[in-house]
Amino acid sequence: ACLTIIAGCMPIPRISSDWNADMAGIGFELKKLFHRRGLMAMLRAYGYAGVICAGPMLLGVLLQFGVLIVSSWWQVGRPDRDLLVCMITYTLLASLVLTSFLSMPVTRFLADMLFDHDEKMILPSFWGSTGIMLVVGAVLYTVFLLFSGATLMQGVLCLWLFLEMVVNWNAMSYLTAIKDYKSILYSFAAAVLVAFITSCVLLALALPPVESLLFAVVLGYGVMLVWDVLLLHRYFPQSRENPWLFLQWVDQFLPLALTGLFTTIGLFAHLVITWCGPLGIKVKGLFYGAPYYDVPAMLAFLTILITTVNFVVSVEVNFYPTYRSYYSLLNDGGTVKDITVAENEMLAVLNRELHYTALKQLLVTAAVISLEKTALNALPLGFNDAMHGYFRVLCVGYALYAVGNTVMLILLYFTDYSGALTASALFAGSTVIFTVIGQFFTTTLFGFGFLMGASLFAIHATFRLASYTDNLPYRVLGQQPIVAQTKRGRFTELGILLEHGEQRIDQSLHRTEYKRHVRRECGTNITEANNTIGEES
User: Rounded mean pLDDT of 394-412?
Assistant: First the structure.
């Protein structure tokens, strides 16, 4: 839901009501759904919000556990299961890290294009950003796969899955502007269903289990990819505009790019570090894993879905109207009294919604920790006492991360890019440092490194938001640049270089086609002349 997060990041001093209507996006649509009465309407609204927020990541986690369950049904050997989980996890994390750098700048570009009613620039930017990430990612991940120890078929499937995930992650940034949440939900459900059916069919045919299950996951993500791309082409006009223009936004909003990258590193670095520690095992070649830690971590990650959804449902739906009203008064010459009243109301709603969001996550985490032993023992995941301990610690850590991430996103609403960047950098750095230190202590303390990093993240982001909003009028008006500044850096230069290269290729193709046309015309004329001479003779 980055599109609505960046909603508040448009530069003051002017925000139009038309832009507010566009940027409300998922918030306004969900508000309509929540106004409908009935349990099914409520479940449908939460379902839409969950799929929009979690998207491919939720799909990846569900598919991993689906693979484990299907493997246990068909009695797939433990080494094959560990290798499969490692391949999917490596591919998922690699695609996340790659796309995290461009995710927020691309979303900001999308918001600006919608603000300017320049929709013809959106689809070219999608393919331009996707193309860059596919090329860079394909080269880097292919190099890894060549030395990973995977077979040719396994390597091809892993690379195929990686490229699909890159497209899916990038597409989710654009899909939030469509507002066709029913179609997005259908694509999600279709992907899970296709992967499940395909895996069962292939295992029933006694095909190699690793390749069969990996192909099922690839096919599931492929269904989601095709569906989402068709949705984008249905709602946005096709054009031949410059597909590299978005790179200027990367230079202009580089703190956003770094914020996304650091947040992703902080979220998953503890997994990679644990693979290299005492719990890590060498599955095959360069594929390492820590099954006793990875499975609890992935399950604990699912517990923050309540906060992720609640941020969109509660903060977006309830906070955004007051936010829009406050900035509208600033733009349209409201009186000081009205602006002060609107500011107080906005901050009161914000504090209340953040409080409720944190409270709901606390209750969910407490309930999960209380019931996890009974529920997890019923699943065929092989949980032992150590895994239960990791799960409880990581549940608390992910809960604190979810709260800190919510506050950080509010900082982005108020264009506090430096504050958000500092918080995310602190999260990434502290998580890495504490997790590395934890590897030298007893394994029962594993997970506390991430817990401590998430705690610092939540505390710093909360204090930063409090200090920032204490003097909000100055932050909004006094800190804005008097003259608009355009940054031209390496990414802008890369965009210009790519545009020139594209023009040269087009010109070369045009010249080649012209030469072929001339040759065809000359050949036709010579043939006609010969036929005429023959007839006269």
Answer: 92
